[in-house]
Amino acid sequence: MREKNDLKLAVLIDADNIPYSNIKGMLDEIAKLGVPAIKRIYGDWTKPTVSGWKPALLEHAITPIQQYSYTTGKNATDSAMIIDAMDILHSEKVDGFCLVSSDSDFTRLAIRLRESGMLVIGIGEKKTPNPFIVACDKFIYIEIIGGIKTLKTTTTQAPAQTEKFDSIDVKFIQLLKYSIEDIADDNGWAFLAEVGSLVIKKKPDFDPRNYGFPKLTPLIKSLKKHFVVDERDSGKANIKHIYVKIKNK
Fold it and tell me: Which of 15, 94, 101, 142 could form a disulfide with 10 if both were Cys (CB 3.0 to 4.6 A apart)?
């Protein structure tokens, strides 16, 4: 995944399949990845089910796109969003897309955009079908946006808070180990930033916050049974280069 904070992104939001409660958190998350040059939200604004979005549109300068539901049971919003995405693609005004939806109908769109060299970031709920998740370069769950801050401000983790985090199981440990082995030097050390980038390529929805950690470094440090961490001077004050090695390798 490209690590540039000046990427121009087209943010396309499916109002029918995304909750409006954390729109600020979503936009803050997108701002970490690039500049939201285009911000559009699609829905049938005559329906009361999307009325909660309306106050956020002016506050965050999001352009609403009206799409009437012509036929019962058919999602016209999907078609409008896909058509707009292709128009934006051919305009060559952006470097990537952020598709905000939990709908698997956007899987083919994500694949097509990536085939054209676009960076594709998905944002959706944990119920999002896996085909759409893996079609993106990176996928972020809405449930974790802002979740770490809430958790750290409490002295005791309530069951409802801990349940939203994924468990660190054997499969995930193996993913980390294989990724370290893939890029390690002759002594077994791998630069942790590169490890993180490789894991995302293999598992687009990987995010340390899914496991209750704000960053990858504390997540790795918590797994002392499996990994050794080495913090090396970078030549700059207060900046360390973090390397990781599989224990007993």
Answer: 94
